[in-house]
Every structure is written in structure tokens, then in C-alpha cells.
Amino acid sequence: MTTRVSTFPLRLPVSLKAALEKISERDGTSLNQFLVIAAAEKIAAMETERFFEERKNRADRKAFRRILNRRGGVPPRPEDGIE
């Protein structure tokens, strides 16, 4: 299976392009590959944020409280506390 690619002109301030070139060289990648990876990482972060936001909105807070307040179980261990 071949990945289809698309091209487009990208306008960057000279200082930003120079910084990206230095970093991509240090990373051992081409400028293009570095920018593709950076874009993929940003998309992954934003999609992860969206995923958890959707999960939060589906939460049943009454059920959550009911589970937390049920009888039985084992009390939290000292290392389970929030500092």
C-alpha cells in the first residue's frame, strides 16, 4: 500500500525556518520529515484531548458517586493519597 502525498507552499519567517533547519539537522531528519512528524504529534495531542473531553461529557456522575460511596471494599492505602 502506498501513502498518497500532497504538497503545498509553506511560508515561514526566516528566523523560524533557520531554527527548524538546525533542529531537524540535529534530529537527523530532513526539514520536511521534521515538520510532518511535528504536525502528526500535534494532531495526536489534540485528538487525545478531544477523546477525553467526549468521555468526560458521557460520564454518569450519579453512578460515580454511588460507586465511591458504596459499602465494603478496602480503604485506600497511604500511598494512594493525593499530595
Shape: elongated
In this structure, how is the largest beta sheet organized?
A: none
Low-confidence stretches: none
| Quaternary organisation of the protein chains | single chain
Helicity range:
55-70%
Q: What string gives the helices and strands in order?
A: HHH
Chain-wise SSE layout:
Blueprint: H1 14-27, H2 31-57, H3 61-68
Features:
3 helices, 83 residues, mainly alpha
Describe this structure in words.
This protein is mostly helical and 83 residues long. It has a domain at 15-70. It has helices at 14-27, 31-57, 61-68. α1 (14-27) packs across α2. The model has no long low-confidence stretch (mean pLDDT 92).
In a few lines, what is going on in this structure?
By secondary structure, the chain is mostly helical.
